[in-house]
Amino acid sequence: MISFEHVGKRYGAGPPAVGDLSFEVSDGEICVLVGPSGCGKTTSLKMINRLVEPTSGTIRIDGRDTATVDVDVLRRGIGYVIQQIGLFPHLTVAENVATVPRLLHWDRRRARARVDELLELVELPAAEFAQRLPGELSGGQQQRVGVARALGADPPILLMDEPFGAVDPISRERLQDELRRLQGVVRKTIVFVTHDIDEAIKLGDRIVLLNVGGVLAQHAAPADLLAHPASPFVESFLGGSRMVRRLGLVQLRGLALTADGGVSPTVAVDIGATLREALDAVLRAPDGRAAVTDAGRMVGVLDTEAIRRAAQ
User: What confidence category does residue 262 fall into, taking pLDDT thresholds of 50, 70 and 90?
Assistant: First the structure.
């Protein structure tokens, strides 16, 4: 667990970059820091691995004050991925991924096995990519190598500072999907910085929304944030389509469904779908209703009114 306890950061006599910030990140979750420019997202992230030292307050990892840990030891237990990727251009992909294992003096065989494992994990097979140079890869492929490198020594914590901000929208969406897939395999505690609320909603198990000056505006799960903004600032930052966004977070499974009334709808949607996918099916249906199926068996019916109620 990572905990911020009244953490602040001030540069000189000016206003604080981060002011009295308190929140917790549970083990194995993706916590996304999001907010407008000047809200202290990146500063807060960098205080976790002490690239920036807090002016006040305490940051703890598993209950231990990070200020009491040797900074090199601290950073070797935390993976770090940045927007600019930062691969060494003169080193091969394999050599880049093996950076931290080399610093930890792993033997060559163990390091090579770890590199092969990580490249397979990020879907860049070692046989094809290990000996390439970063300049021979696309931006999305380079970012995957950056993630693999951050996971090199299997750190429990991964910090990601707008890692997908420099790639095109199609690659960005694929990388977001890839991160969710990877998280299902490796289950790291991830703190992720973005300025994009849609990215935060898609990736985060919890969202820390900051206001200018590093002031905590709201800390909540994405669905709760969208349904119950804590202030006019939060509501404004989420924008006018927040309930539409929420439709993409709520699954049909577990909802109370109406019976079919003896009439079978012509359009069907699986019970594992989201309300957003169900709404698409309902709007395509000639009678404005969609059957909900589970393993091919119809278990209920949805219409726009049922979707509206479920979205509240």
Answer: low
Q: What angle do CA 62, 64, 68 make, to 5 degrees?
A: 150
For domain 2-240, which CATH number applies: 3.40.50.300, 2.170.150.70, 3.30.300.30, 3.40.640.10? 3.40.50.300
DSSP code of 194? Answer: E
- pTM, to two decimals: 0.82
Q: Which of 146, 145, 155, 154 minimizes the C-alpha distance to 119?
A: 145
- Residue in this structure with the two tokens 């594992």, named with its chain if needed: 272
Total residue length of the chain:
312
Domain boundaries, the chain: 2-240, 250-312
Kind plus residue range of the DSSP H or E element containing 23: strand 18-25
Distances in Å between the alpha carbon of 137 and those of 102, 121, 133, 161, 176? 23, 17, 7, 21, 18
